């Protein structure tokens, strides 16, 4: 279970480091922010004034023993590129690994 949390922290650190704004994006504001955490489940969503949106839900799934559980996560991120096209990455992450799907939305 510790390794799952380590991966989650690593993905969050990468996402944060890649998410530093530049140019006009530095002036973007959060226009929607929701979060909930019940201990064994969590969810969050946000949207910014420059068209970035992110959602994620996660749940601790119990295992055979107290230390054998796993974290199951799913989410998506979308944004508009400088060329005006909108992209989305959706993903699941669980005991089988990280499974992203990338697509051009419009």
From TrEMBL:
PROSITE patterns xrefs: CHIT_BIND_RR_1, CHIT_BIND_RR_2
Biased composition (Polar residues): 71-80
Keywords attached to this entry: Cuticle, Signal
Source organism superkingdom: Eukaryota
Signal peptide: 1-19
Coiled coil: none
Ranges where the record places region Disordered: 53-81
Keyword Signal: yes
Keyword Disulfide bond: no
Transmembrane segments: none
One Gene Ontology molecular-function label: structural constituent of chitin-based larval cuticle
Record GO cellular component, one term: chitin-based extracellular matrix
Pfam families, A to Z: Chitin_bind_4
Protein name: Endocuticle structural glycoprotein ABD-5 isoform X1
């Amino acid at each position: 279970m510790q390794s799952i949390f380590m991966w989650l922290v690593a993905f969050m650190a990468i996402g944060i480091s890649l998410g530093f704004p530049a140019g006009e994006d530095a002036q973007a504001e959060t226009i929607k922010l929701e979060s909930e955490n019940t201990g064994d489940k969590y969810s969050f969503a946000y949207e910014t004034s420059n068209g970035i949106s992110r959602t994620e839900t996660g749940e601790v799934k119990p295992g055979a023993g107290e230390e054998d559980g796993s974290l199951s996560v799913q989410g998506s991120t979308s944004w508009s590129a400088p060329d005006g096209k909108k992209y989305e990455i959706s993903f699941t992450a669980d005991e089988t690994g990280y499974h992203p799907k990338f697509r051009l939305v419009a």
